[in-house]
Write a structure and sequence with these properties.
Blueprint lengths: L3 H7 L1 H13 L3 E6 L5 E6 L2 E3 L2 E6 L4 H8 L2 E5 L5 H4 L4 E10 L2 H11 L7 E15 L6 E7 L3 E7 L1
Antiparallel strand pairs: 1-2, 1-5, 3-4, 4-7, 5-6, 6-7, 7-8, 8-9
């Protein structure tokens, strides 16, 4: 597993593309695991806090409870309208969400002023980052996959 900063230091070009897609739109889709193991999807917003990719959540929200029980997540960046994808990439991240508590949480509450001081803050540690885009010649998909153990691998699909 890697923090956002570790990912960005290892693959700065890929990290810049992923960050640009995440910053292009405010709302993204987060997948968590329900108690029975079924997937749950929720809307979320992400931000960078120091070296970390994070998101906040209302107190006791289903996604927060899911992540407190099992931190595994998948995040699909908002692809926008079809015209927004022209020349862009589809972005997906996976890993473990770690709840931020204590002094760091208090500092976030003071700085950001979430709707409730009991709001949750999660740091996203990454196990996989994937981008999918169409090749310049429009003949195939180009899938770039990064993991902390394998680094960057590029696949082409026709």
């Amino acid at each position: 597993m890697s923090t956002w900063q570790e990912f960005a230091e290892r693959t700065p070009e890929l990290a810049a593309r992923v960050r640009a897609r995440l910053e292009a739109f405010q709302h993204h889709v987060l997948a968590t695991l329900r108690r029975d193991g079924a997937p749950r999807v929720s809307g979320t917003e992400v931000a960078w806090r120091g070296p970390d990719l994070v998101f906040g959540s209302m107190p006791g929200s289903r996604k927060a409870v899911d992540l407190q029980r099992d931190g595994r997540f998948a995040l699909h960046a908002n692809p926008g309208a079809p015209e927004d994808m022209m020349g862009g990439v589809d972005v997906k991240l996976a890993g473990r969400a770690v709840e931020v508590t204590g002094d760091e949480h208090r500092a976030w509450v003071e700085e950001v002023g979430p709707p409730s001081p009991d709001s949750h803050l999660f740091r996203l540690d990454l196990t996989e980052v994937t981008t999918t885009g169409v090749a310049e010649d429009q003949t195939h998909l180009v899938i770039t996959r990064w993991t902390p153990t394998e680094g960057v691998r590029i696949f082409k699909r026709t």
